[in-house]
Structure formats: C-alpha cells, structure tokens
Amino acid sequence: MDNVLDFFREKKPWSKYKDLILDYYLKPYLAKVNKLKKPILVVDCFAGPGRFQDGEPGSPLIISDRLLEIQKRGAKVKGLYIEKNPILYKQLETNSHNLPILAITRLGDFREHLDEIADLAKTHTVFVYLDPIKPNELLFDDMESIYAQLKGGVSVETLINLMSTNFLRAVRGIKNHVVLDGLIQTDHELVSKWNRIAGGPYWQQIAFDSHLSEDNCADQFAKGYANQLRRWFKGVITYPIREKYEHKSPKYHMIFGSRYPGAIELMNRAMVNARRQFIKKCFIEGHLFPNQPEKEIIKPEEIEKIILQASRKVGKTTWANLRLSATIANPPTYTDSEFNRAIKELIKERLLHSDCPGTKIEENALIWPSP
Ligand SMILES: C[S@@+](CC[C@H](N)C(=O)[O-])C[C@H]1O[C@@H](n2cnc3c(N)ncnc32)[C@H](O)[C@@H]1O
After folding, report:
1. Which of 64, 84, 197 maximizes ligand 1 atoms within 8 Å of its Cβ, making it the mutation to test the pocket?
2. Which residues of the chain have pLDDT under 50?
C-alpha cells in the first residue's frame, strides 16, 4: 500500500473476518480475565484512525466497545492506541476522545511506547493487537520486552496479523540479490533483515522451495512463525484469511499466542466462527442448495477421528488436555463443545477409556486410548 491513507477509504470485505476474530474473542476473554480482579489493558500498536471513511469501525473502536461492556460489569479498563501517521493520529484522537472508557492515544512508533506497556503489564492483564500493513513494519523481536515478562508471571496475550503472502512476495523479490549459484548467501544484509522480521532463517527454504505449492508456502511460513512464538507462548494457533475460498494465497494469517489453554480454546472458537461465516457467505447464502466443499461439512465421525488421533499421540491425559491437544493439532476446525461431544461419545462407545463414565464433561478425568 503506497499511501497508508488509502487503506482507510473503505474496509475491505476480508478485513471483516479479521475484525470478527478480534471482536468475537474479546467478549469471553474480557469476561474471563475480569475474574482475576486486575485492571485490564488492551493495546493496539497499529491503531489507524479508529474509523474508516466508509463509516466502518476500526480496531480501536471495536476494542473500546468490548472494554465498555466489561467496564459496566465493574472492571477497570484501559485501551492504549498507538499510531505513527500524524494525519491518522489526529483522526484517532477525534474518534476516541469522547469514549466512555479510558482510551489513551499515543502518536509515534509503537516501539517508543514499549516501556509504558511493559510497566502497565506489571499491574494489568494485557492483550496486544499487532496489525501492520506491510510485513517489514513488525520485527519478530519488537515485543520481546513485553513477552519476556511472561516468565515473571504476568498475563500477556497477542493477536498478530502476519502478512504471510506479502512477506513471501517481498523475499522472492530479493532472490536475485541473495541467491548465488543456487545457494542463499546467509550473511547477506537483506537476508539478515528478513530473518529479523521472521524471527529466524526458516523462511528461506519455504520461500525458495519450488516444490511447495503457493498456498502451502504461506501456511508453512505461518507455521514457522508460530513455532518461533512458542519461545514465549505455550499455545499458538493460526488462521489464514482469504479473499475468496478458491484463492491459493491467503491475504494474511491471524496468529494468536497465549500460555493459557482456556484462551487458546476461546480464540479457536473465534477463528472457527470466522471460518464458518466465510464458508456460509461463499457457499450457502444465496444458493438454492449448500455447495460447500466436503471438508467444510461438519461431521461428528471426523471429530471423533481427530480426538482418537490426539489421544493416541498424547497417551493418558486429562479430558481438558486431550481437547486442547486436538484443538492445537487442527486449528481452527472444530470448537471445544464439538470436541467435548466427541469425547463423551467415544467414552460411551468404549473407543476411549476413562475413569469417568462420559455422561458429562469432567475436565480432570483421565482418558487414554484403547490398546
Ligand atoms: C493495517 S493499519 C491498522 C488498521 C487498524 N488495526 C484497524 O483495523 O482499523 C496499520 C496502521 O499502523 C500504522 N503504523 C505503521 N507502522 C507503525 C508503527 N511502527 N507504530 C505505530 N503505528 C504504525 C499505519 O500508519 C497504519 O495506520
């Protein structure tokens, strides 16, 4: 995007799925962290103006609405919205100065405000939203000082818009400079630059491997990025956002990191919801007969198959952990309730063993596969 102002003329249809995930997740997340009785901070490091010119709300307003709901239920909340473009910042100020929550706006590069965020993280639960326009606007280690606090027991979660396809496009554009006689020059300054954005050299093989199909490349890259994030977060899940179902390359991937199993399941549910809404729009609404691809049809036997696979992989474990393992291995395909139903069924059918009867959900019951 040459001119960042153009981006905000109108909200693109696929951006709505990105917003849907953010919005859908925040509601149960905020209700959950409110129980910790700590003040809540939501940071939007790439805030934009708050509202698009077509009237659609931008992320700061989506976040503020959710914060207001939980504030009404007694929570102490803060939104911290950072924007570096002075024109957009002015609009952000105008759009947020009358909000009925504490909305703090900051002009400048979000990196200049990391100390403030790190300081607030000592006393607040923190959710960080990172939504750049270009892949080079976010270096992998930019948030290190915030994530590093996870070791000290602070609560931080992150939702990142990973510009996977644009990343691959950009690095392929430098191929002639960095690949000599079929070998990548690992010490080339451009290679180091893109290593810093990706968080490691894993992208090199993906970007220049002619055997991978285009959609596979973006997914592999997102997987690689998610693996790097596991340095900090126990649970990381990704979701590709597409303009059209049949498009090989997604527009980008949404990546979520948290160390709380409950948060992973909530985000998985938000991503499943976005995925199903997208399928509904593409194949069900306005069609006389639903014509979605076979793999998008929800089949209880498929869910049971996934649970059995997960159980064989993790061995004897708790109900909650079995469901989480199935979720992480297949995000975002089925919800936690669908997995619960499958677990119950499998225990009743004696295809899974358990120290509970499987008539109701028992998170701590032990479950193991039949030999
Ligand atoms: C994709 S837009 C954000 C859209 C916004 N999240 C929304 O949904 O309404 C990215 C924004 O981040 C801003 N930006 C880019 N680099 C930044 C940085 N280092 N610090 C703060 N803002 C930045 C851009 O000016 C642009 O407004």
Report:
1. 84
2. 1
**Cα 131 to ligand 1 centre (Å):** 6
pTM of the model: 0.95
Rounded distance, CA 355 to CA 353, Å? 7
Residues 251 and 241 sit within 8 Å (Cβ to Cβ): yes
**Nearest CA-CA partner of 164 in 195, 201, 203, 192:** 203
Superfamily of domain 4-281: Vaccinia Virus protein VP39 (3.40.50.150)
For 199-236, write each residue's pLDDT tens digit. Answer: 999 999 999 877 777 768 999 999 999 999 999 999 99
Query: How far apart, in whole angstroms, are the C-alpha atoms of residue 315 and residue 288?
Result: 45
Q: What is the mean pLDDT of the chain?
A: 95
Residue 213 per-residue DSSP state: -
CATH tag for 292-369 (out of 2.60.40, 1.10.10, 2.40.30, 1.10.238): 1.10.10
User: How far apart are the C-alpha atoms of 282 and 291, rounded to whole Å?
Assistant: 9
